[in-house]
Specification:
Number of helices: 10
Strand content: 15-25%
Distance between the termini: 57 Å
Shape: globular
Bound molecules: S-adenosylmethionine
Helix content: 25-40%
Low-confidence stretches: 1-5
Oligomer: single chain
Order of helices and strands: HEHEHEEHEHEHEHEEHEHEEHE
Structural class: alpha/beta
Number of strands: 13
Mean pLDDT: 93
């Protein structure tokens, strides 16, 4: 199979599942398998230059190892036993930037197949509560398997339309963090061999953006919410900056955009004032799949008077 130039630039990222192991033990395991460990990367260019049986620790994310693009670890014991998760670097940003403290109550609104949920569980150290929802029964079944393999406990997974989840239900009264990674056009996904999908039509983009806006609005209505991450694997402004801008406008001064990861090189498109607080990712600039992340926080009452 021919691999597209974009795909050949994206390294193989390996997230160490800290619910089951630690970074040092995984590094030792790969060394015993004949890989050479080159230490922590100093620049993104180093990630791109990797070749052969060499690997690095990522420079941005603490539990992420980086292998050359061609590395296939699907049969590796560490993967089949849930000790490592094969997850693109950009897709590790949402849970990392949400960063709930251990013990928090968190909603993962569109959760399947669950890579970000298992990342959240690792950040929570399995302490606290995750309420995970997905509308698709097959994807929920796959997610159950994945979460069990990853050693996730303290996660209530429901096959349910997130838009029908009642924010006033006392079950969710302590939910302070929400991760919203809704269905999108997927236009940022780099395909490893099949060529690029056709661009989505204007009608499809409009329909997706409509759902994304409704889901974001719904998420912001959870009464104890403090921090929310909105993410997509889309390159389209309609599904990204435009959604965030429209919903923030509806909420007036109740929520604000946080400048996430100031050292991240690739920022939101200048669609509105402050959009550079958002993050973007792309094969050309960050050597990842194409991605968008926005971090929103509830404004404290009187914060303007008491900075
Ligand atoms: N966060 C997931 C992960 O990291 O593994 C990927 C989520 S995927 C981009 C979007 C998911 O949203 C799909 O699994 C889809 O079934 C689900 N979805 C779509 N509409 C939904 C709704 N109304 N309520 C809950 N889930 C929904």
């Amino acid at each position: 199979q021919a691999v597209s130039p974009a795909a050949s630039q994206v390294p193989r990222y390996v997230r160490v599942n800290t619910l089951k192991t630690c970074v040092d033990d995984v590094i030792d395991f790969f060394k015993r398998q004949g890989y050479t460990y080159l230490g922590k990367a100093a620049s993104v260019e180093e990630l791109k230059a990797l070749s052969g049986k060499k690997f690095l620790l990522d420079l941005h994310l603490p539990e992420l190892l980086v292998f050359p693009a061609q590395t296939d670890l699907h049969d590796n014991l560490l993967y089949t036993s849930g000790h490592i998760i094969l997850q693109d670097k950009a897709s590790c940003l949402p849970a990392f930037l949400l960063g709930p403290a251990a013990g928090s109550h968190v909603i993962d609104a569109c959760a399947a197949p669950g890579n970000k949920t298992s990342h959240l569980a690792a950040i929570l150290k399995n302490k606290g509560q995750i309420f995970a929802f997905d509308v698709d029964p097959k994807r929920v079944a796959t997610m159950n398997t994945l979460l069990t393999r990853a050693g996730v406990t303290g996660c209530q997974l429901a096959q349910q339309d997130f838009l029908t989840v009642d924010p006033r239900d006392s079950k969710y009264s302590r939910v302070t963090h929400i991760l919203l990674d809704p269905s999108c056009s997927g236009s940022g996904m780099v395909t490893r061999g099949l060529g690029q999908e056709a661009a989505p039509s204007a009608e499809r983009l409009q329909a997706l953006a409509g759902f994304q806006r409704r889901a974001l609005n719904h998420a912001l209505s959870f009464p104890a919410l403090q921090r929310l991450v909105y993410s997509t694997c889309s390159l389209h402004q309609e599904e990204n900056e435009d959604v965030v801008q429209a919903v923030l406008q509806e909420w007036g001064s109740a929520f604000r955009l946080v400048t996430a990861f100031p050292s991240w090189p690739c920022r939101g498109l200048a669609a509105f004032s402050g959009a550079e607080s958002c993050l973007r990712a792309s094969p050309a600039e960050t050597f990842t799949h194409g991605f968008f992340v926005a971090v929103l926080e509830r404004c404290r009452e009187g914060a303007a008077e008491n900075p």
